[in-house]
Amino acid sequence: MDLKSAIRSIPNFPKKGIVFRDITTLLLDKAAFKQSIDQLENYCKGKKIDKILGIESRGFIFGGALADRMGVGFVPIRKKGKLPAKTIRQEYQLEYGTDSIEMHADALKPGDLVLVVDDLIATGGTLSATCKLVEQSGAKVIGIAALIELAFLPGREKLTGYDVFSLVKYDSE
Ligand code: AMP
């Protein structure tokens, strides 16, 4: 199945000029959802992975399902102020201003091999900050996997040096 056909595009959301790639329609379609996790599992084959990290909030869906398939633990990356125990934090640039993401300080051990999962790579800012969080705790990013890549944005450039994998690419808005 062409996974792209299961993704709904909503023009001018959340603001004018942005085409929002809505994965809720893919999640509703059991064959499309299964295929997307199958393809992510295929990407993981032969890789040694200790933990899968998912980025709030849609990264939890794909990362969580994949962690179950792979038989490894799952680590949530959240917007600041949401995680209850001691956290480590990374700030990153937004179009206007900055934002930050957090991870529990005891989630990763030095030397852990980590796969980072999100739904979509746009500018790569969130993923790049997530990789820094991993490295801050002495663990290693062995790959970045996303359902969707907006290939007309410099996400891959921002993530130079990492193995970046995506299932569906868009070459323009
Ligand atoms: P970025 O840090 O720029 O790579 O943005 C990453 C996050 O923003 C992704 O995890 C997406 O959830 C969300 N996002 C950015 N652009 C879009 C879009 N066109 N459609 C849906 N989600 C988007």
Protein topology:
Layout: E1 8-11, E2 19-22, H1 24-28, H2 30-44, E3 51-55, H3 58-70, E4 73-79, E5 87-93, E6 98-104, E7 113-121, H4 125-136, E8 140-150, H5 155-158, E9 164-170
Parallel strand pairs: 3-4, 3-7, 7-8, 8-9
Antiparallel strand pairs: 1-2, 4-6, 5-6
Bound molecules: adenosine monophosphate.
If you had to describe this structure to a student in words, what would you say it looks like?
Helix content is 28%, strand content 35%. The chain is built from five helices and nine strands, in the order ββααβαββββαβαβ. Strand 3, helix 3 (58-70) and strand 4 (73-79) form a beta-alpha-beta unit. The longest helix has 15 residues, at 30-44. It is globular and about 40 Å long. Adenosine monophosphate (AMP) is lined by residues 18-21, 55, 58, 118-126, 155.
